[in-house]
Design a protein that fits this description.
It is built from 20 helices and no strands. By secondary structure, it is mostly helical. The chain has a single domain, classed as Up-down Bundle (Sodium/glucose cotransporter), CATH 1.20.1730. The longest helix has about 50 residues. The termini are far apart. The model has no long low-confidence stretch (mean pLDDT about 80).
Length: about 475
Amino acid sequence: MNPTLIGFIIYLVVVFLVGLLTFRLNKTLADFVLAGRRLGPWVVAFSERASGESAWLLIGLPGLALVSGYNAVWPAIGCTTGILFSWVFISRRLRSKTEEFSALTLPDFFENRYNDESRILRVMATLIIVFFFTFYVSAQFLAAGKVLNVTFHITPFWGMVIGGFIILFYTIMGGFFAVAWTDFFQGSVMIFTLVVLPILGVVSMGGIESFTEKIALRDPGLLSVGGGHHGWAMAKTVLGGLAIGLGYMGQPHLVTRFMAIRKTDSLKKGTLIAVVWAVLAFWGAVFIGLVGLSLYGDNLPDQEQIMPFLAKNLLPGWLAGVAISGAIAAMMSTADSQLLVTTSALSEDIYHQMIRRDASQKRLVSLSRLATVVVGLIAFVLALSAKAFVYDLVLYSWAGLGASFGPALLMTLWWKRTTKQGILAGMIVGMVTVLVWYNVSALHNMLYELIPGFFLALGTIWVVSLVGSKK
């Protein structure tokens, strides 16, 4: 049997076992969507990081570094900074406040915090989550097709089918318990791949000097953090990369991890674990692309296949299977979390809170599992028709969620004069700005849509709340 396939099968067996073992732990909806708030700092930190860095970390970012050189460091810097900010300024207050207001989800929290009897905050937040997460999950399915295609020569379609089935299986079976514990395992596999692969690549070329010389021979501009650009072109790429960090505080599938930890005090330890993981992972992802650039140039048929291609050429077969599982792990750990947040928004925020308040816990868990399948199938169909790169799809969804929820959450937790009307207006402005900016090519080419979306939403919340509080 193919040694690479053996390593991959071992990985899949572990994931399936976690799904089966956690099936019986889900007795209530709180168990299914938040693990009953019983998780420790190591599991929460690894789960938050594995969920936060989807297939774009092992597929998209190395592909970007392959074609743009050291210019790819800006997303790495922006993301690491955003992760630190989110853990320091969002995690503790959100954990305390969501318990205080008996909230299982973000829409739950906004409605309860502002005593919104009109339910408009819940409805708007749920619509935003379902819309953008469907695109986000489709990007993960697309990544599964690419990885399995280059590794086992499976057609992209069947690669997406296999990846989608695995994710749906253990998410449906184990809920948040399965997602969190598989994330812990998958986060470990991801960090192994991201640290070991670039080191082996540099060693195989004879060290840093040889590695740098080979890149310089291809294009000296690739050794510049400006990517050979000047003026506004350089400023745009720098700002766009750094701005990705703005999105972390507004990602529902990430902040949900803060809500699930057992004790608020454990978040200090979780912060240290998460930031160390992020530093190692992001620099590893950039250097995977740079090693690929040095060894092969940008001659691959698909730039986003550099990681599995490099693993197959640098590692023993079985170890390559484990490393390539890191890309599958990145895809799965994000897709499962996003599916869970989306389905909890439908089952808890819409069905339970607005349609049938007396629904039994067993019925709510069953409905959540059904919603998981439906959302997964829609995302799969979108992935089949997607023409964008994984990197682009993820950045679009990331911007939409970050601009809609980031300013709203930041102001709710840190400014007492924030009003319900301000939060609603901010969500709408953030979402609409991203939608318009992304789909108007002149604007999209000028600046990453998260920047105007985030700051326009933040300003809107401040102005509308200020006017409302005066009245």
